[in-house]
From TrEMBL:
EC number: 2.1.1.33
Signal sequence interval, chain numbering: none
Binding site for substrate: K122, D154, T191, E192, Y193, E194
Catalysed reaction equations from the record: guanosine(46) in tRNA + S-adenosyl-L-methionine = N(7)-methylguanosine(46) in tRNA + S-adenosyl-L-homocysteine
HAMAP family, per the entry: tRNA_methyltr_TrmB
One function term, GO molecular function aspect: tRNA (guanine(46)-N7)-methyltransferase activity
Cross-referenced Pfam families: Methyltransf_4 (PF02390)
List of residues binding S-adenosyl-L-methionine: E44, D69, D96, D118
The protein, known as: tRNA (guanine-N(7)-)-methyltransferase
GO CC annotation, single: tRNA methyltransferase complex
InterPro entries: SAM-dependent_MTases_sf, tRNA_(Gua-N-7)_MeTrfase_Trmb, tRNA_methyltr_TrmB_bact
Tree of life domain: Bacteria
Length: 211
């Protein structure tokens, strides 16, 4: 997600260490201590302005959620949502999705979400797509055996690419939705992009893939 640079965003994040983990490498293998419980940990890579991660945290108080985004201004808006929600089971990280093994031990993350990732449509940018095989290597390293990725997008090209990437990697496509909002799927929590796109009549695609 690209947003206008927010003045003072970095200071704002640093002033809320109870929600924004400033040195996540120190938490590797210790995330249950950070949350103060042994509940499962779910992460969203590319958390945007935080609507999904806070919505999920409020809906599922027995799961710990971590929202990850590399952009300071974007993460600052996610912090707005967290503070507004007062959800105790959510934390935010300003890190890159390709470096997750620096912050999580094998199996420390129970489940992952990829929502409305940048499609990087040009072939020369394929390696930047969050469902490219090198990213899948990273996710597999921090998820348990049979760990899952739940992926949503409005971009048909990225969706088709991701289905192929998951399959070629040897993952199981547990369920596929070609029109999520027209399906009987229950409990969907929408992202900001999803609200915008669906209100314009765009189809939302979803898949649950398992290693």
């Amino acid at each position: 997600m690209r947003v206008r640079k927010r003045k003072g965003a970095e200071d704002y994040l640093e002033s809320h260490p109870q929600y924004v983990i400033l040195n996540p490498e120190d938490a590797k293998g210790k995330w249950h201590q950070v949350f103060g419980n042994t509940n499962p940990i779910h992460i969203e890579v590319g958390s945007g302005k935080g609507a999904f991660i806070t919505g999920m945290a409020l809906k599922n108080p027995d799961i710990n959620y971590i929202g990850i985004d590399i952009q300071v201004s974007v993460l600052s808006y996610a912090l707005d949502k967290v503070l507004e929600s007062q959800a105790p089971n959510v934390r935010l990280l300003r890190v890159d999705g390709s470096s997750l093994v620096n912050y999580f031990e094998k199996g420390e993350v129970a489940q992952m979400y990829l929502n409305f990732s940048d499609p990087w449509p040009k072939t020369k940018h394929e390696k930047r797509r969050l469902t490219y095989k090198t990213f899948l290597d990273t996710y597999k390293d921090i998820l348990p055996e049979n760990g899952e990725i739940h992926f949503k997008t409005d971009n048909r090209g990225l969706f088709e690419y991701s289905l192929a990437s998951f399959s070629q990697y040897g993952m199981i496509l547990k369920q596929v939705w070609l029109d999520l909002h027209a399906s009987d799927f229950e409990g969907n929590v929408m992202t900001e992009y999803e609200q915008k796109f669906s209100s314009n009549g765009q189809v939302i695609y979803r898949v649950e893939a398992q290693f």
